[in-house]
Inverse folding.
């Protein structure tokens, strides 16, 4: 398979159970459908090929659109789902993803797990007055339901 950026022949490398295609010339990496999800956190993957890729310098030189090396469709550029600071190139036909040199490292460093994502979303929502009001009302309703449940439990205990 040829690199979608520089057209160099890509070589298959093992990143610790996940085989990806790497361009030795520009440092780009091709992930088939769902492979990136197996390597986007720091704790995932291992081996010399992965370590080499993680040491690659970030290169995001301006370029035009590129085509999928698998099916030839135009790749669409958008933010990565779990790290909005990194723009990836994705094929909407076959699901493959191309990362420029250094982007895998950026994704792994800025990966937001479920807990961090929830904290981040909560911090954004807390700046919206309507959200804070609704949250306060929801907490009051929850407290009232808990109190009512305790009263019902006490009544049931006395009756039976």
């Amino acid at each position: 398979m040829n690199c979608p950026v520089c057209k160099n022949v890509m070589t298959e490398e093992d990143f610790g159970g996940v085989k990806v295609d790497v361009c030795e010339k520009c440092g780009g990496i091709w992930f088939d459908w769902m492979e990136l999800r197996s390597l986007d956190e720091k704790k995932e993957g291992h081996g010399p090929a992965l370590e080499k890729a993680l040491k690659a310098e970030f290169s995001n030189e301006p370029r035009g659109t590129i085509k999928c090396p698998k099916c030839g469709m135009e790749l669409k550029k958008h933010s990565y789902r779990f790290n909005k600071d990194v723009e990836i190139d994705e094929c909407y036909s076959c699901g493959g993803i191309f990362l420029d040199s250094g982007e895998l490292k950026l994704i792994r460093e800025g990966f937001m797990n479920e807990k961090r994502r929830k904290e981040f979303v909560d911090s954004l929502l807390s700046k919206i007055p309507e959200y804070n009001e609704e949250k306060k009302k929801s907490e009051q309703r929850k407290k009232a339901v808990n109190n009512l449940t305790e009263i019902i439990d006490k009544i049931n205990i006395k009756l039976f």
